[in-house]
Known about the structure:
The chain has 18 helices and 20 strands. It is of the alpha+beta class. The protein has a domain at 363-561: Sulfite Reductase Hemoprotein, domain 1. The strands form four sheets. A five-stranded antiparallel β-sheet has the order 1-2-5-4-13. The longest helix has 18 residues, at 228-245. It is globular. The termini are far apart. Residues 556-571 have low confidence and may be disordered.
Amino acid sequence: MQQSELEKKLNRRERYKVRLKPYDYFVKEFDTIDFESLGEGDRYYLQDFGIFNTNFLEDEFTIRIRSTGGRISTKQFHFLSDIINKYDLTLVLTARAGFQLHDVQAEDVHEIFKLLNENNLITWQSFGDNIRNIVTDVYDGINKYAHIEVYPLMQQMQDYIIKNPKYVGMLPRRVSIGISGNSANINSFFANDIYFALAKKDGVYGFNVYMGGKNTEIAQDADIFLLYDEVFNFFTAFVETFYTHGSRFSRSKTRLFYMIEEMGLQKLKELIADIYGKRFNTCGELQLLHAEFNEFEELANNKFAFCYQTDFARLSAKEIRQISDYADKHNAEIRLGIDQNIYIIGLNEKIAPFTSPALSSTIVSCAGNLCPYAVWSIKDESAKYLPLEKIYKHRIKVGFSGCAKGCGRHRHTDIGLIGLKTNNFGDTNGGTRIFIGAEHDSGKSVARELFSMVPFVHLKETITLIVELFEQSKYKNFQLYAHHILNKYSQDFLSLWHLYNFKNNTSLGLPKQKNMLPCKEEEKLLFESFSGVELIENNFKKTVSALAKELWTVEGKDPHYKPPIKRVNVR
């Protein structure tokens, strides 16, 4: 086959890589780029250096900063506030414990890029087809759940790929990596392409390897146990394997998940082992448990950490200065969490001189209207659409995604939301698809779809109902509720059950099932005990569709402004 024929089969981005490697593009072109006149190829290449732009927002850019393990010095943090003020930027924390600078003007890109990287605020490979920011638990090495500190290992991994000409922008697709030596984590890491999870074998702590996760899928158990000193060699062997054998054709099938789907996990392991140079040990016993984390957490050294809950990932220059000055004054450390909050580590007392602007500690959201792909302003409207006090009280994990890309990890949370446009319910100005019941701590399952669309005007009442039904169950946390109740029933039945309660203004709980999913006939018998709803053609799905239309179609006055309905708890 001629090279030109092969190129025709490559996806568009890969054809650019064949013509000019991203690293060579940076060396030859970057200093002379006219950011006010970019071509398609420029936009592809620039992502590999943390610079994002679209052809329909030509003069505005986003610059992403990676922060390995969420670590950042107080000096760097303060420097960021200066950058934000000087260039009038908007800063948000990412769900990978990094930063995004929005509203960057074309004429300022060169200067801001240079200033950031000169101050070790690395932008390289934070977008594009690269190993993205490597993440861990914010309490790595410092709390009662910490068994192996992984930050030094993460630095070694990042040093290997950053500015490596062979790999800069040259992977078939992005790769997300999570590693934690903690037995309880603030957030789950099973959405990563690779997750090194704390495990124990023969009395020794190490890591079980999980591969193939993404925003809509749980990473699979690879049946591999690695000691601390083996992780880096596995990492380099994996990178080379994905670089060499990953698909470069259909862009929609280039993630690691699809590589595993096509060749099988066993074949992938064999390819990695050929480079790794020795046989893998079979997996150990996973060391993961559920824990609740508070605003102040006591650390292993009898000091404290303070969680500053951001305004749904947004931070102002003033807030950054306050936090960095306070941390400096108390000789404390600043860490970023993948929950998009700021942690001040090493305080002597449970005291902080400022209050958090929002109850956001268990809520992860994408960039919202700061991203051109999002269909709603998540960060501005979270308080409007969520019962925040109830969510915070029960530490319910919520994931917001503004579009189908799923940057809010909505399938890896207790309650997940994805913004959509629809006219199926009248003039609703859009709505959300709702997912519910992920068993995310253990990586057992992603959340299942509860409703394909709930108009915005009915969203808060719907989420409130979901939480009230959880409260009725008396389980200590939402994952136990999902495991023992929600995930024992079929998806359509759960949808109908919630709609029944919505229609009748009740909070009628479901009985606990001892076995696996009940059959449809058993669910129909259970449904007969409900009143006020009849099955259409003896079919749950058709009944859900009709009932949703009946309850949620907007006619006349906006139902969001109706007086609140008092619910009756039915036992």
